[in-house]
Each structure stands twice: as C-alpha cells, then as structure tokens.
Amino acid sequence: MASGFVAILAVELHFPDAGSLKGKRKYVQSAKAQLANRFGASVAEVGHHDLWQRCALTAAFVAREARAAEELAERAEQWLAGQEWELVRAERSLVSPED
C-alpha cells in the first residue's frame, strides 16, 4: 500500500505591529488560513500563546511524492517570509509513514 510523504514546516513569526493578543490573533488567523488555502496545509498554533508579538506554527503538507511535499513546504516558507510580519525561524523536515 502506497503511503505518501508529509513535509513538516515549523516556523516562528514576529508581529511588530501587534499591540495586544487580539491584534496578534488577526495575523495568526490570516497566516493559518493562507497556508491552508494556498498550499493545502494543515496548520496549528503550537507556541507563544501568551505573547502579543510572537507565534509558533507547525504546518503539514501531504503529497504522493517526497519532492512534491518538500516543494509545498518550501513555497509556503517563502510566502511567509514575504509577508508583513517577520519570519524569525523556519525548520523543514520530511517523514514517510513507511519509515
């Protein structure tokens, strides 16, 4: 049975213009929605819940081929880096259920 591949992108974002948790939420919701809509990612906020200007997100990209999953994660990272917030850190990894 073919299982496919999952590329995982873990990022930390900085929102210099956010002055409250409500302001931060606007950026986080936008980032999560765009990653899902543009790249088909499943996204979760995984850290810095109590900080106004920081966010840690993890996104998963599933594809039949390893290269396709990696390309989705790479394109998503590039998109995040070009937005109004700052991409502080990004780490990518690839897993296969067969491993």
How would you describe what is shown here?
This protein is α+β, with helices and mostly antiparallel strands. It is built from 2 helices and 4 strands; from the N terminus they run βαββαβ. It has a 4-stranded antiparallel beta sheet with strand order 2-3-1-4, with helices on one face. The longest helix is centred in the first third of the chain and has 19 residues, at 21-39. The chain starts with a strand and ends with a strand. The mean pLDDT is 94.
Provide a concise account of the structure shown.
The protein has 99 residues and is of the alpha+beta class.
Secondary structure elements and their pairing?
Blueprint: E1 5-14, H1 21-39, E2 42-47, E3 54-63, H2 66-81, E4 86-95
Antiparallel strand pairs: 1-3, 1-4, 2-3
Helix pairs in contact: 1-2
Total strand count, please?
4
Number of helices: 2
Share in β-strands? 35-45%
**Mean pLDDT value:** 94
Poorly predicted spans: none
Please compute the radius of gyration using only Cα atoms.
14 Å
Outline: elongated
The H/E string reads EHEEHE
Structural class comes to alpha+beta
Major sheet strand order: 2-3-1-4
Largest sheet: 4 strands, antiparallel
Percent range of helical residues: 25-40%
Q: Span from first to last CA?
A: 14 Å
